[in-house]
Amino acid sequence: MNVSGQQRKIAVLGAPIEIGASQRGTLMGPDALRTAGLLSLLEGLDFVVEDHGNMTVDGVAALHDTPPGNAKHYREIQRWIRTISARAYDLARSGAIPIFVGGDHSLSMGSINGVARHCREQGKELFVMWLDAHADYNTPATTITGNLHGMSAAFLCGEEGLDGLLGHEPRASIDSSRLELFGTRSIDKLEKDLVKLRRISVADMRKIDEFGVSVLIRRVIDKVRAVDGVLHLSFDVDFLDPEVAPGVGTMVPGGATYREAHLIMELLNDSGIVHSLDIVELNPFLDERGRTARSVVELIGSLFGQQIADRPTPTNAM
Fold it and tell me: Is 65 a catalytic residue?
């Protein structure tokens, strides 16, 4: 985000939710990233960093809608999503760049909804880049597992089946044409059919192998710039190859290399279009001596302008 003449601010909010996934342990993700130096790295890049700690839903009242039959832990996740959405909206309005640190990918149903509400009020088109091994475009009608982290992208695009999830919190769905699936390499049959029906842009690993990340990322950047839009980056750690990032519960071989991931982050920083960010699915319980957490922090450094050598760019910082 370019804030000319002003000190740049980042607001970090931990969302330690783990019940949207089948493998427990992601609730430790926010603190693992802090321990790996996330906050000090961002401060070293001349940002004013506000750490809002880790959220809790203790004391948040349950709603009384009818849960979908095939959505695990619906009621508790509903409490999380409502709360995250409200906090995300407030952080987006504050003028800071919000970073939502998870936690499993179900948190994005709240974080992006809150950011989208703010963008709608500002007359800005919000695009979402889904850096993920999975499409996460299941619904209660198509899911095999019933895990809500696999329905998060579909919910954001207004698909039916989780209509009561936000309760009275306003729903700000994005059009499916503004969702960019990037790095996809695992998708269920019915989910694939729905993605195809909605004509969602998918840069799977074959396309990345064929064209390279720079060509594909620039296409996304051009699409966002064409309408003077902004981008929310939803970064699932399993986007990376397991050799780079073993600390995930949904490991899929054949992911992005460390260098490919850094190039993506560097190009996005150069573009100046990223205004908010999720970091999800880091499971320190499965990591190797903090290796995945350190790699993620280094990638976030590239996203926010860390460079080995200065180089001319269209814009030097987000």
Answer: no
